[in-house]
Write a structure and sequence with these properties.
5-stranded mixed sheet; Nucleotidyltransferase, domain 5; alpha/beta; 3 helices; 140 residues; two-stranded parallel ribbon; single chain; 18% strand
Amino acid sequence: MAQIKRPKAVEAAIPTAAMPDIIFMLLIFFMVVTSFKQFDGLPVIIPEAKNTVKIEVGKRDIAYIWADKHDRVMLDDQFYPTDDLGEMATVLYDRRSRNPKTVVSLKADRDAQMKVITDVQQQCRKAYALRVSYSTRFKE
């Protein structure tokens, strides 16, 4: 009696020859569709100055503070109430303690109340953020 030969079991294997191509296509796809957050702060009209000096520091070394004519104050992308800016001083102190080279860039509207600007300056002093840059536009 002749024995019936059973077919050998088919091995399940994933072909990996095209794996680098797939990885690069996914990488390119995510690079194309990813958008980075661009934050512009509050809309302010910066005052003009006859002399300006550009400070050369890294982007990570700058803490942006905006103050507009409607008495709104913003540190980076967070609003702070003008009647109690103590929380802003705490955040600024923590940021400055992590990076001692931090420079505060104050962008104040030319129609902003001086009381708000003075309060922001006081909070910068409380946070020991003494390197403050006042943003202006060059006037010829």
